[in-house]
Design goal:
About 45% of the residues lie in helices and about 10% in strands. It has helices at about 30-45, 50-60, 60-65, 70-80, 90-105, 110-120, 135-140, 155-160, 165-175, 195-200, 220-225; strands at about 5, 15, 15-20, 125-130, 150-155, 185, 205.
C-alpha cells in the first residue's frame, strides 16, 4: 500500500489511513433551530408538547449517541412518554420517518468534498468514519453519497462508545487493519476528539467543514485549546 507524508503536527510521519469525523468535518453542523424544528414536527405527530419534547431530545443527546435509549423507535416512544404522551405504533412510525427524512435532507452533497475524498483514496489512503451520532445517521448512511467514499464507518450509537473514548478509535483502526502510528485523525474538535485521538497514538488535524452556512452552530473548544492551525484542505494530507 502506498502512503504519503503529511505536513503539520505529523513531523513528516507517513500515513496509510485517515480516520474522519462527520458533523462539522464532512457535513455541516447546521442550525439548532432547524434541528429543533424537526423535533417539533415529531411532537405534532406524537401529539405531545413540542417545547418539552425539544428539551428532552437535546438533553438526551449523550445517551442517544451511546445507544443507551435503544432503537430510534424505542427512543421516540420513551421520550414521548416522558413528556406525557402515549403514542400509538403508527404515530411512532410516522415520527421516525419524519426524523429520518430530516436527517437525510440535512446532509448536503458537496461535489468538491466528494472529489477530495476520491482523491485521497486514489492517493492510497484508506478512510474510516468515526462519528458520535445517534441512530439516525447509521440508518440513512447507506443512501448518502459520502458513504461510498469511506472504507469503514464506525458509529458511537452502534458501538456504544463515544469519542474521546480510546476504544472507538481502535475499533476503526482494527477494521482498517492499520496501527495508530500509521494513521491520522481529522475532525472539527468537538467532544475533545483531537486530544482523544492523540492519546491513542493517532496524528490529529483540525479541520472544519468548509461549506457551512452563516449562522450555523460552531464548536469553539478546538479554537481555544488546540495549538495547531486547521487544515485548509483535506488534500494537504497527501502532502
Amino acid at each position: 500500500m502506498r502512503s504519503f507524508a503529511a505536513a503539520g503536527p505529523s513531523g513528516g510521519r507517513r500515513f496509510s489511513a485517515v480516520l474522519i469525523d462527520f458533523y462539522g468535518t464532512l457535513a455541516p453542523i447546521g442550525r439548532g433551530a432547524n434541528r429543533a424544528g424537526s423535533v417539533r414536527e415529531m411532537a405534532g405527530i406524537l401529539e405531545v408538547d413540542a417545547d418539552r419534547l425539544v428539551e428532552r431530545w437535546f438533553a438526551t443527546f449523550p445517551l442517544r449517541t451511546r445507544g443507551a435509549l435503544g432503537s430510534l423507535e424505542e427512543t421516540v416512544r420513551t421520550l414521548a412518554g416522558e413528556v406525557g404522551g402515549r403514542p400509538s405504533a403508527a404515530q411512532v412510525e410516522r415520527a421516525v420517518s419524519a426524523r429520518l427524512r430530516f436527517s437525510q435532507e440535512s446532509v448536503p452533497t458537496s461535489p468538491a468534498l466528494l472529489a477530495t475524498l476520491d482523491e485521497l483514496r486514489a492517493g492510497g489512503l484508506r478512510l474510516a468514519l468515526v462519528s458520535n451520532a445517534s441512530e439516525e445517521l447509521p440508518r440513512v448512511w447507506p443512501g448518502l453519497p459520502v458513504a461510498a467514499r469511506l472504507d469503514v464507518a464506525v458509529f458511537s450509537c452502534v458501538e456504544r462508545l463515544a469519542k474521546p473514548d480510546p476504544r472507538i478509535y481502535r475499533v476503526a483502526l482494527d477494521r482498517l487493519g492499520v496501527p495508530a502510528t500509521a494513521a491520522a485523525f481529522v475532525g472539527d474538535g468537538g467532544n475533545g476528539e483531537l486530544k482523544g485521538a492523540q492519546r491513542v497514538g493517532l496524528t490529529p488535524f483540525l479541520f472544519r467543514y468548509p461549506f457551512e452556512a452563516p449562522g450555523a452552530d460552531r464548536v469553539s473548544e478546538a479554537e481555544v485549546d488546540w495549538p495547531e492551525p486547521p487544515l485548509a484542505d483535506l488534500r494537504d494530507l497527501l502532502r
